[in-house]
């Protein structure tokens, strides 16, 4: 735990520096709508192993959850109570409640009493004994596991994970903006978000959470399902998360929901995020063989290369990169196990080297360029100013010039 804490603390500096120095904003000038298609698409589609393969572990719960959620959120979305689209806005809460109660009924009735251990772990609501073992109150505090230890090898390995998180979050930011009907995030807003995420990773390391912070792809998909993109919702949700983290019994109650239920939701959420990436094709010329080559190759390799790395690691118990330098192995194996990271490397490289001088219009750059700066669109003031009048304390953040 102390080693992971130290690695997170060191690695967080990478995102903090890239974000607040605006270096990531400068890097984003090489991104075009065409180059972002594979990245954003694979942010969603690249998580396919967390979808139906997990649903299949407990089909009697997963399939009803998937069907009920689709029915509530799509087929019955126009059902209103006092002019409020109840089923569209609360499809997730209602379907989870119904299927969770159904799963608990199966558990209490003894339906899984003589089933294999794997089936019980994926279907039962009481298998992990979370509620009985969780404390009533537990207040987390910094360095609760002791002083963090710092090792260069661990730090470099964690930096690779932070880079992957940075790339995936970039795609998720753009997908969230599109699903929320906002303008594409300007360069400095994108970089600012990466900086805040770095601070989140730093706090994760200080509090010993074992994992860092990244954009929730599930929540991005939820925006597309509910059509609710309000900051206030996120702020209230954060309050609930703090509440449940302190009162352990309440947190354990929700943690007892079988993961199969979440996997059924992922089938919809990740699909929505992936489709957002494909929607950027409308701003490009897909009659161009150049564009077809870039999109096709980067998406295929974005799925194929990580699959190779995962299969190799599962059979050989180590990644394809297996030199004497452990930190180097961790770095390469982590980067190339991420579909969005591979897609970004390939698509941006090809897009900026293959006939790029005469293909600005085909790449979608005329549509993209006006959103590069904060003042490029009057709607940015509504979407991207900091909340709680924080712009008074960071006035310079709005005057960053286009990279």
From TrEMBL:
Membrane found in the keyword field: yes
Gene Ontology CC annotations of this record: membrane
Membrane topology classification: Multi-pass membrane protein
Transmembrane portions of the chain: 29-48, 55-75, 90-112, 233-255, 261-280, 292-309, 331-350
Keyword Aminoacyl-tRNA synthetase: no
Protein keywords: Membrane, Transmembrane, Transmembrane helix
Subcellular location: Membrane
Molecular function in Gene Ontology: transmembrane transporter activity
Entries under InterPro entries matching the protein: NCS2
Similarity comment: Belongs to the nucleobase:cation symporter-2 (NCS2) (TC 2.A.40) family.
Name this polypeptide is given: Nucleobase-ascorbate transporter 2
Origin organism lineage: Eukaryota, Viridiplantae, Streptophyta, Embryophyta, Tracheophyta
Name of the gene encoding the protein in the UniProt record: LOC110736128
